[in-house]
Structure prediction request, 242 residues.
Amino acid sequence: MNQPKFKRILLKLSGEALLGDSQFGIDPDVLDDIAEQVKKVLGMGVEVAIVVGGGNIWRGSAAEAKGMDRSTADYAGMLATMINALALQDAVEKKGITVRTQSAILMQSVAEPYIRRRAIRHLEKGRVVIFAAGTGNPYMTTDTAAALRAVDIGADILLMAKNKVDGVYDSDPLSNKAARKFKQLSYMEALNKRLEVMDSTAFALCMENHLPVLVFNLQAPHSIEQAVMGKDIGTLVSDHEY
Prediction:
């Protein structure tokens, strides 16, 4: 049997990764595939927490560029992450899995508030925990929320699932076919090369807490399962071999 490499993971899903081949919204087939993989990962005995973005519904930076107040735009983005979290919650529950959604801003009717000890207890009981609404603060991305939650719950690794990009490159692989992919990087290499692994605040959190980050393509077959088993996919950012 394939054995998992990690006991507790934090899976970061970008909002764009939920688009599939659509231009806007959520692709039900993508949700179903994620839910099926989460079920298999749980079956390996791995504890799964998830942070989901909202870029498939709302882009705060784009709204700000058109004149909206930055804080207001960011709060709207937090609501978009809740829509995605509830859709993902439903998809995972349909696989017979118990899910708890926790929100960084109070939404008592649809989610628990984020409470670290409660989140860890849910994970220990084999429940999937979805963290929504980012950190609850404007000016903070969902990348930062993912890094913060991963450190807070003691995750072994942060899995960054990207949309049609299978790792970290020295330039944009979607526009430059000659872009070179990195198999593994140290935190300082990623910083010195100014590679866009994630936003700087999130990256600093990972580096300071020695949290490894694996960047991989969500659309690749069985990608989440392979990441959990430590297969050679994507790009690993860490100061240690795994």
